[in-house]
Amino acid sequence: MNEQTADDASSGAQSRDLESLADPVYLEELRHQMQRFATLQLGDPHLAEDAVQEALVGALKNARSFGGRSALKTWVFAILKNKIADVLRQRSRYVEADSLLRADAEESDLDELFNKRGHWRAEERPAKWADPEAAVDDREFWRIFEACLDHLPGRQARVFMMREFIELESHEICAAVEITVSNLNVTLHRARLRLRECLENNWFARGQDRGGEA
Amino acid sequence: MKSCREVTRLLSEAQERQLDGGERLALRLHLMICGACRNFSHQMTSLRHIARAYARGAKDEGAGGPPGKGRGKDTDRQ
């Protein structure tokens, strides 16, 4: 991997990738994101760590074939996603039964939030969030955030994380999980509705309707 | 006039793509009269901000107890 000398001038992007992988700060940040992603999806930090290691090793081996940091990132996460899919497939009987149930649950979801005319039900109306910027500095907030993520149906959580944590574009997610753009939009819409409700109920509006819990 | 259900769908989609002129106009009209959807709209921005902070490892930075720690709690008293 060290013989990247003569042909470098012709492939600036490629050498930037090699630098990316040699940059400990970037690599650590990437590993961190992957670990979160895998842990949340597998529910097991050790399995997640194995999957992340394998994906990173694969990336290091093939580092010369990328066209930039974002391509590298997409690629690394695509490998990781496949590793995760393998693990999940081994649990597939459980997962499939589970996701069938969840598909039904997702349908009724929106009816719980909106009435027949599509307006917010009175008790579901989003409230104003007090000081959302401050929340990120609060350790307790992150505990709630993770709990809310855990409560999302598996597919919603997976897609939401690909979009918001890994910052993949719509078409990249659609290709990775083999769904249409309109499917993706529906899934993200539901994930966001659920997440915002969970965060509001458990954090942002917590002090507003009750004077403080003991 | 679009329903809240449709408007929240558009506000979510706006996180993925640039809405067209008609969609933006429909949103503006609805948001003028609907406080709940206005809150939802701001929350989409906050949610993205929060998710990106999480992916950057803000949770672990917060664990050390920087000056900002505990501020969320203070909103409880009112």
Question: Key features?
Answer:
heterodimer, A: 214 residues, mainly alpha, Rna Polymerase Sigma Factor, Chain: A, Butyryl-CoA Dehydrogenase, subunit A, domain 3, 2 domains, 11 helices, 0% strand, globular, disordered N terminus, B: 78 residues, elongated, disordered C terminus
How would you describe this protein?
The complex is a heterodimer of chains A (214) and B (78). Chain A has 214 residues and is mainly α. Chain A has two domains: 11-90, Rna Polymerase Sigma Factor, Chain: A (Orthogonal Bundle), CATH 1.10.1740; 93-205, Up-down Bundle (Butyryl-CoA Dehydrogenase, subunit A, domain 3). Chain A is 72% helix and 0% strand. Chain A is built from eleven helices and no strands. Chain A has helices at 12-22, 24-42, 45-61, 69-90, 92-113, 132-135, 139-151, 154-164, 170-177, 181-204, 206-209. Chain A is globular and about 55 Å long. Chain B has 78 residues and is mostly helical. Chain B has a domain at 4-56. Chain B is built from five helices and no strands. In chain B, helix 1 runs parallel beside helix 3 (35-55). The longest helix of chain B has 21 residues, at 35-55. The model of chain B is unreliable at 63-78 (pLDDT under 50). The interface between A and B is large, with 54 and 48 residues.
List the helices and strands and how they pair.
The complex is a heterodimer of chains A (214) and B (78).
Chain A: H1 12-22, H2 24-42, H3 45-61, H4 69-90, H5 92-113, H6 132-135, H7 139-151, H8 154-164, H9 170-177, H10 181-204, H11 206-209
Helix pairs in contact in A: 2-3, 2-4, 3-4, 7-10, 8-10
Chain B: H1 4-13, H2 21-33, H3 35-55, H4 58-62, H5 71-74
